[in-house]
Design a protein that fits this description.
Elements: H1 2-72, H2 78-102, H3 112-126
Protein name: Centrosomal protein 15
Length: about 130
């Protein structure tokens, strides 16, 4: 009988140890879960902060790009725009004459009046 009583006491102590260890493990799990949630919240906050910072940097870069663009390619003056428009209109007007010459189907496209002026300017340059 004593041996059964001793065994029961030993099993009871072992049971208390196991229950105590279980409580300790449950507390550790609870702490770890709390730490993970805290870390996750911290990471989420860091991600939001990084997103806002990146958005701000992107806006700054776009503003700098726009500023540099206006410095590199300033808006042309109206006189320049007008001159450019007239130039391209003249080019389009003379394309048919030059096209045939460039394709080898027609002579050099200078009419007699322009040819005389060209010859005079060449002669003036030679003198």
């Amino acid at each position: 009988m004593t041996s059964l009583f001793v065994q029961e006491i030993r099993l009871s102590k072992r049971h208390e140890e196991i229950v105590s260890q279980r409580l300790m493990l449950l507390q550790q799990m609870k702490n770890k879960l709390g730490d993970q949630n805290t870390e996750k919240a911290s990471q989420l906050q860091a991600a939001e902060t990084a997103f806002k910072r990146n958005l701000s940097l992107l806006k700054d870069i776009e503003a700098a790009e726009k500023s540099l663009e206006t410095r590199i390619h300033p808006i042309p003056q109206p006189e320049v725009v007008s001159l450019e428009t007239r130039y391209w209109a003249s080019v389009e007007e003379h394309i048919p004459k030059w096209e045939q010459f460039l394709l080898g189907r027609a002579p050099y496209p200078i009419d007699a009046e322009n040819q005389n002026e060209a010859e005079k300017s060449i002669q003036n340059e030679a003198q």
